[in-house]
C-alpha cells in the first residue's frame, strides 16, 4: 500500500526532545515500512526516517528562532500534499483540522488522527461543517465533546517493543514526573504526593513560554521548599529509558481531559507502574492493580505509592506488551485504511452536511 503520513512541523519526526504527536507519527511510519508498505513522510527536514522524506521546512519550527507564525509553513505543507495526492492510496493526516477543506474531494482515501483535546467550543461548529471525514480518536473519552462525525475507530498509541527495555529488578528510591510544566499536568500535586509519601521526586519536564509565569509563581517555590525534589528539565529518548526505568513509580496527577497520555505507556514499557488521577483516558490505559493505580485525590495517591512499589514489574510490562505495541497500532491503522478504500467507513445517518437547523451553531 502507498501511504502518506502528514506530520505537524512543530517538531521533527521523531522529536529530539518533547513532542508526543511527532513521536507517534514516527512509530507508525517506521512500523508501516517494516511491515512492507511504501510510505512517504511529509515533515520537517531534520526528521529521520526509513520512509521517503518530503522535507517541507529545513528544521522543526519550535527550534527555529526565525519562525513567528507556524500557519504559513503548514500551508506550504498542504500544497505539497495536494500536488502529490494522486501518488498515494491513503493520506493519513496528523495536523488536526487545517487540511479539512482541501480533502473533501479525497475522502475515499483520507484518514485523520485527532491527537489533541476536543472539548474546545470552536471545534463544534467546525466538525459539524465537515462531518464526513474519517476521524480516528486516540481514546474513547476523547470523543465525548464532539458532535456526530464519521469515526473510523479508536486506535490506542503504541511503542516499538525494543524502544524502552523493561527493568524488572530493584528500582531506585524515587518517584518520577515527566511531561510539561503546566497547570493541567499538576506538578504541584506530584510534589505534595511525593512529600507525603516520604519519597524523593525527580521532575523531567519542559517549560513552554506560556507556562513560564506558572513555573515562576507556583512550581519553582515548591521545588525550592522541598529538598527531595529535583528538577531535571527536558530529556531525550535515551535519557527517558534511564529516568523511567529506574523510578519506583510514575506520578501522572493530571487535572484535564487527557486524550491519551503517552508517558503512561512509556512507563509501562519500562516495567514501571503508574499512579494516575481518574481524568480523560486514564481508566482506558491503566489496568488498576496490574499496571498501576487509578486514584481520585492526593490522599489516595499517597496511599497508592506503597502498593505500586510492591507490584510485580513483569506484570506491568506484560500489560504493555498486550495492548500498546507499535506493531498492533500499525496493524490497526492498516485495517482502517483498507476499510476506507473499500468504502466501509461511510458516515452514519444523521451526520450529513446540511441536516439539522443548528448546523453551524456552537
From TrEMBL:
Coiled coil: none annotated. It comes from the Bacteria. Residues 170-305 form the Glycosyl transferase family domain. Residues 18-121 form the Glycosyltransferase subfamily 4-like N-terminal domain. InterPro entries: Glyco_trans_1, Glyco_trans_4-like_N, Glycosyltransferase_grp1. It holds the Pfam family Glycos_transf_1. This is Glycosyltransferase family 4 protein. The lineage of its organism: Bacteria, Pseudomonadati, Pseudomonadota, Alphaproteobacteria, Sphingomonadales.
